[in-house]
Structure formats: C-alpha cells, structure tokens
Amino acid sequence: MISVLTKVLILYGTRYGTTKEISGEIEKIILEKGFKAESYNLSDIDLKNIPRLDKYDGVILGSGIKINRWTKAAKKFLKKRKSELIKIQNKMGVYVCCGEAAKKSNINGAIEKYITAKLEDIGLKPSLVDAFGGAYDLREGSAINGMTKKIVIGIMQKEEGIENPDGKLHDFRDWEQIKSFANKFVDLLNQ
Ligand SMILES: Cc1cc2nc3c(=O)[nH]c(=O)nc-3n(C[C@H](O)[C@H](O)[C@H](O)COP(=O)(O)O)c2cc1C
Question: How far, in Å, is the centroid of ligand 1 from the Cα of 86?
Fold first, then answer.
C-alpha cells in the first residue's frame, strides 16, 4: 500500500511580525505530529503561485488585525480562492491575532467580530476558529512609530491601564492557547 503523507497549507498575513511567529509555532506542532506542511507569508507570494487547494488535506489561515481589518493580502486570498476554501472548510482553521483578544473575556467577541462576521459575507464557515492576543512593540526602532505609536500609547494607557507603555514590548499572546489551537487542528485532520 502506498502511504501518502497528510499535507497542510499554512498561510498568514502580518504587518508587524506577531502573526508570523504564531504561524511558526503552529507549523512546528503540525510537523512534530508527523504531517507535512507548506507555509507562506501572503504578502510575499503571488496568489497565482499558491497551488490548488485540493492538493492539501487541510488549510490554516491567520491574520493580524489593524483598525478592524485583516491584512490586504489575506483578504485578497479569501476573495480570490473562496470557492476552493468552501470545499475544504471542514478541514480549515482560521485565527486572528488582535489587541481585543488580549483579555480572555473578549476572545469570543473578537472571534465573532473579526472572523465569523467577515467570513459569513463570503459564505465560508471553517471548522476551527480562534482569536489570539496580539503584541505591541513600542521599543526603539520598532515598526510602530510616529503618530501610530502615539495613538497606541494612548490606547494602552486608557484601555490597559499601563502608565508608561513607551519603550517596551507588550506581548499578550497566550502560547498555550496557540498550541491548543494547533492540536485541535491535528485532531481535525485525524477525523
Ligand atoms: C495601529 C494599530 C491598530 C490596531 N488596531 C486594532 C484593532 O482595530 N483591533 C484589535 O483588536 N487590535 C488592533 N491592533 C492590535 C494588533 O492586532 C496587534 O498588534 C497584532 O499583534 C498585530 O499583528 P501583526 O503583527 O501580525 O500585524 C492594532 C495595532 C496597531 C499597531
């Protein structure tokens, strides 16, 4: 009998690198479980070069959120490949990385707002969804700078109650939650 390894497509959209690291952790777990994986930063690849989705046994898609929006590249991927995605949605995991999910009590709201509501518009209902807390790098030389940095500092002071947020990395990612998502996806593949 020919043994064919289960192959997972892992895609992500990121602006500041937080989602890239999450995607890397998910990929690590999937590989550890003995599956094959192919991973792409959606900003680095022409969508035409992403193979047909029926070549894969499962798909994971993640995006960082900025001003309520997915990254442009992730949105474009959803739009262009929606009919293929709908066919594989029972083996599909979708997550967002966002400030709103930093508080455990807000996770369900963030899932609804940034995943369910957005995907409903294109008729997509993936089996597994989650929202992970994000990170704000306010250290010298970070990509969050200028006016954006001032706004983020204001929000951190007001909403998070952090008195002096400047110059620090504020990381709200829960790696156990991320690992659990990857393990649940593996269970989905094994079903
Ligand atoms: C300018 C800016 C705007 C943001 N807007 C939102 C937002 O509307 N909702 C939210 O939940 N998080 C928001 N965040 C938090 C980001 O989602 C968080 O920093 C995340 O880690 C970014 O992911 P990325 O590094 O992969 O791009 C914002 C962050 C920045 C810097």
Answer: 27
Q: With pLDDT > 70 as the criterion, what percentage of the chain qualifies?
A: 98
Cβ–ligand 1 distance for 136 under 6 Å, the answer yes
Are 14 and 108 in a shared domain? yes
**Position 107 in a domain:** yes
The size of the chain, in residues, is 191
Q: What is the CATH classification number for the domain harbouring 29?
A: 3.40.50.360
- Please give the Cα distance from 189 to 163 (Å, whole number): 45
Q: Specify whether 11 is located in the same domain as 32.
A: yes
Q: How far is 37 from 8, CA to CA, in rounded Å?
A: 5
The upper half-sphere exposure of residue 27, i.e. CA atoms within 13 Å in the direction of its Cβ, equals 18
Centre of ligand 1 to C-alpha 120, Å, is: 22
Q: pLDDT tens digits for 62-120?
A: 999 999 999 999 999 999 999 999 999 999 999 999 999 999 999 999 999 999 999 99
| Residue 105, C-beta contacts closer than 8 angstroms, at least 6 positions apart | none
